[in-house]
């Protein structure tokens, strides 16, 4: 199943309501294609919601309740993206888009999303998202993109496919 922006908004609104009913301070951070869809008109659909949350928390059960009520896959929202988390992000890198009581769902802002896409760098699969995020971030050259990446991942390197894509984008005649 593929999700539209509307599906994601409704699912996340229901998820935050489920989490709010627990009367606990709970935060879920959304990244990846779903977050990009929430920031821009992204023509490509997504088949899941990449999120950062503690696996053994009540979040997983709430995700499953939302899935059951909507006839969605039980892993419609998952934390398989933990490999790409930045340890240098700041609270300002997140937008509180869905809140209810003490529960909140934060959406990564475009600069953090771009850095994550550059780290993952899965070639054609990420190139359209990289281009869209470059535009949203106002990046006009390779050096700007490299500095943005280094801000979030100072001890990592950009994925070779992502670097090649950026080099072609900013130096098309070479």
Give the class from helix and strand content and strand pairing.
alpha/beta
Q: Give the spatial strand order of the biggest sheet.
A: 3-2-1-5-4
Q: Unreliable stretches, pLDDT < 50, 5 or more residues?
A: none
Number of domains: 2
Number of distinct beta strands: 5
Share of residues in strands: 5-15%
The ordered H/E elements are HEHEHEEEHHHH
Q: Could you describe the largest sheet, including whether it forms a barrel?
A: 5 strands, mixed
- Radius of gyration based on Cα positions: 17 Å
Q: Can you count the helices? A: 7
The shape, in one word, is: elongated
Name its key features.
alpha/beta, 174 residues, five-stranded mixed sheet
Can you characterise this structure?
The chain has 174 residues and is of the alpha/beta class. It folds into two domains: 5-108; 112-170. 48% of the residues lie in helices and 14% in strands. The protein has seven helices and five strands, in the order H-E-H-E-H-E-E-E-H-H-H-H. It has helices spanning 5-20, 32-39, 58-70, 110-120, 124-137, 142-152, 160-170, and strands at 26-31, 49-52, 77-78, 94-100, 103-108. It has a five-stranded mixed sheet with strand order 3-2-1-5-4. Helix 4 packs across helix 6 and helix 5 crosses helix 7 (160-170).
Helix/strand layout:
Layout: H1 5-20, E1 26-31, H2 32-39, E2 49-52, H3 58-70, E3 77-78, E4 94-100, E5 103-108, H4 110-120, H5 124-137, H6 142-152, H7 160-170
Parallel strand pairs: 1-5, 2-3
Antiparallel strand pairs: 1-2, 4-5
């Amino acid at each position: 199943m593929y999700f539209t922006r509307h599906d994601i908004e409704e699912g996340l609104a229901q998820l935050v309501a489920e989490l709010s009913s627990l009367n606990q301070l709970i935060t879920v951070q959304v990244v990846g294609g779903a977050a990009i869809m929430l920031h821009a008109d992204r023509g490509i659909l997504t088949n899941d919601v990449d999120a950062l949350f503690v696996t053994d928390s009540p979040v997983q059960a709430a995700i499953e309740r939302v899935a059951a009520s909507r006839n969605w896959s039980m892993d419609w929202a998952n934390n398989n993206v933990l490999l790409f988390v930045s340890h240098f992000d700041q609270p300002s890198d997140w937008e509180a888009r869905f809140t209810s009581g003490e529960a909140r769902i934060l959406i990564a802002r475009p600069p953090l999303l771009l850095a994550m896409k550059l780290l993952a760098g899965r070639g054609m699969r990420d190139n359209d998202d990289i281009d869209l995020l470059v535009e949203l971030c106002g990046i006009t050259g390779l050096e700007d993109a490299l500095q943005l990446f280094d801000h979030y991942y100072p001890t990592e390197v950009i994925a070779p496919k992502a670097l090649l894509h950026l080099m072609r984008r900013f130096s098309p005649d070479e």
